[in-house]
Amino acid sequence: MTNDLDTLLTALYVKVDDELEASRWMGRPPQLADAELVTLAVAQALLGFHSETRWLRYAHLAAMFPYLPQQSGYNKRLKAALPLVKKAIRMLAVDTDFWFDNHWIVDSTPVPCGMSRPTAKRSEMVGWAGYGYCASHSRFFWGLRLYLVCAPVGMPILWALANPKMDEREVLQSMLDVEAGLVTDRPGLLLISDKGFASKEFENDLAMRGIELLRPSFKREKKRKGERLLKSVRQLIESVNDTLKGQLGLEQHGGRTHEGVAVRVAQRILAMAATIWHNHKTGAPIMRSLIAFDH
Length: 295
Known about the structure:
Helices cover about 45% and strands about 15% of the residues. The protein is of the alpha/beta class.
């Protein structure tokens, strides 16, 4: 474990312990505190351990924590900690200047949950997960789609998992309904998307919320305002997805249940948020760089 990673984990532990440590345990608290659990989960994602068994074995050898549970105990605690992980993501985002940015980028990306036909038929997630198509990689998949709304540097603002057959615009509208206060707090909000979010009804709905949509025009349309800036901006969301998949192993999450998939996706989003938060606080030149922490 590098000194940079040690510094990030220490800062994260203190932040969670100070602001989110909840007295939710009746009687004797567990040996592994909630703040330690969150820090342990972030360290696992940053160091690229997809297997929880291998991760706990490594963490024991590295003497990173005074107490570590067995794999089954860690798995159970992690799944139960999904609300805590969500709160930690929001807490870190709010504690940066990026939270107040009135430019948002939205996109969706596949989260495969199985590769075989028997998995698709027998999985507990049948109904929530389903078959979808990823146009950018020209492939079909069985699983979910991760919808991510983030600031231009990649700091997560909103995120959700949904069946890949659901209309992207409906999913985003539902996300905005749940977090309506975030929009009202940002007058003049500009939402940048791809063509998948295009429709007159959807744009009218966004306009009623006080949001302007910036997207590429179709061939039959005249050039839209600000479109010449889109090419470079769209690369930002693609690089955010690449961070989640290439460096944080989003597609190798290993979840097999609703709670398992959700918390493992949240774990990776938290790891990215923690990296951006720490780099911002320490004045690093590149906010989303994981180079100092992934080895």
